Amino acid sequence: SYDRGSTFNVFVGKGQLIAGMDQALVGMCVNERRYVKIPPKLAYGSEGVPGVIPPDAVLHFDVLLIDLWNLEDEVQVQTYFKPEKCPRTVQVSDFVRYHYNGTFLDGTLFDSSHNRMRTYDTYVGIGWLIPGMDQGLLGMCVGEKRIITIPPFLAYGEDGDGKEIPGQASLVFDVVLLDLHNPKDGIAIENQLVPESCERRSQTGDFLRYHYNGTLLDGTLFDSSYSRNRTYDTYVGKGYVIAGMDEGLLGVCTGEKRRIIIPPHLGYGEEGRGKIPGSAVLVFDIHVVDFHNPSDSVSITVHYKPSNCTVLSKKGDYLKYHYNASLLDGTLLDSTHSLGKTYNIVLGSGQVVLGMDMGLQDMCVGERRTVVIPPHLGYGEDGVEGEVPGSAVLVFDIELLELVSGLPEGYMFVWNGEVSPNLFEEIDQNHDGEVLLEEFSEYIQTQVETGKGKLAPGFDFEKIVKNMFTNQDRDGNGKVTAEEFKLKDQEAKEEHDEL
């Protein structure tokens, strides 16, 4: 048979062999080698085989059993590793990805997906595989390892595959299942941590910041936001991410942790991407850091308000307050308490982000409140490098300690009493008909110190005075004449008359 390059294939005990060989093969194991001596009466007797075996010849056979099966055989399955958790097993019409080594019964390797460094991807139970493999894969868990032994009539039969597999060969597949899904599958969500307090859940159109680990079903890591030390930031429900993630991120709370399992038709499909193979089920373990909607405004929660709360903060007021600033997940960003001094601003003057200007409105001294500021009213998409992440929702716990009422809008200085009818002459102390900046500054300072006038609180004195002087110096020559000099209410009346 070695000379012919093919094994001898025959049923035993069916009269297809000489009697001696029929007896000698009984009880042999695959890979067993026997030396068989057969007398003539159990071989070809007194007639022999003309030209080949003489009459009354004793025959000697050196036999090596390569393969062995019976028509009553079925597929044999031997599981040698099974994961503790097995939420789902292979069913008919599922799509699977698996690695395998394929050998004959004698151990000869004829094929291996490992050598090709690519999984075998196929549907199960619909005729895409040989019948024995269609049967042998049923009931497997992801991560399970099993030996599947298939008789030839459930494999490639009498003809083999015309290549590596000869006719009538039993096949042995050592299989590890890596992936499993059904084309009808949707995403699966496993809640791992849901905060006790969840005032709002994400909806279509919200903007989320979240961390994630992305793995395949067998646990192979393909991506992680943690390794980049930066959240993944995106709109949800609008097609900015794969369909399965778009769906899986809806209905989450800030601080929630959940696992989202995404079948390939809702992930990266048959082609895959980068480290993600084609037809791969994806597993994302996500942690929602924060979310907001572009239509969100500032949210204010008052924790304490004094019983005497008649004077409320307004635009132009000078405020002194303490704050703790954090992200929605509780990460502390900044605190005036740690600095040991208050934060001081003129409300509505652009000295803080717009959301804080809004959040400090209508407060009274002693009031404590929490102000939640969405990024478009905070530090936007860019954030503050090294301090505030981009697109971050900010939380300020505020206590107002002092309030100095500001001036009416548009005014940097007001009189506390009647204005002198000879105001220009009073400022022009040397009576030369011209007022210089030094004269103007000295006069304003005297009015403030004597309580006759009031400057807008919270601003630099010199800058305010210079600004007021520049407004009066209409020709820009550094001097103010009586013709140029006008009070603000006079300017407003003149404009009104002109209109």
From TrEMBL:
Its EC number is 5.2.1.8. Residues 415-450, 460-495 form the EF-hand domain. Residues 1-69, 93-181, 205-292, 316-404 form the PPIase FKBP-type domain. It is found in: Endoplasmic reticulum. It is an enzyme of class 5 (isomerase). The keyword Metal-binding applies. The keyword Transmembrane does not apply. Keywords: Calcium, Endoplasmic reticulum, Glycoprotein, Isomerase, Metal-binding, Repeat, Rotamase, Signal. Residues 472-499 are annotated as: Disordered. GO terms for cellular component: endoplasmic reticulum. It catalyses: [protein]-peptidylproline (omega=180) = [protein]-peptidylproline (omega=0). InterPro entries: EF-hand-dom_pair, EF_Hand_1_Ca_BS, EF_hand_dom, FKBP-like_isomerase, PPIase_dom_sf, PPIase_FKBP_dom. GO terms for molecular function: calcium ion binding; peptidyl-prolyl cis-trans isomerase activity. Pfam families: FKBP_C. PPIases accelerate the folding of proteins during protein synthesis. This is peptidylprolyl isomerase. It comes from Mystacornis crossleyi. The lineage of its organism: Eukaryota, Metazoa, Chordata, Craniata, Vertebrata. The gene is Fkbp9.
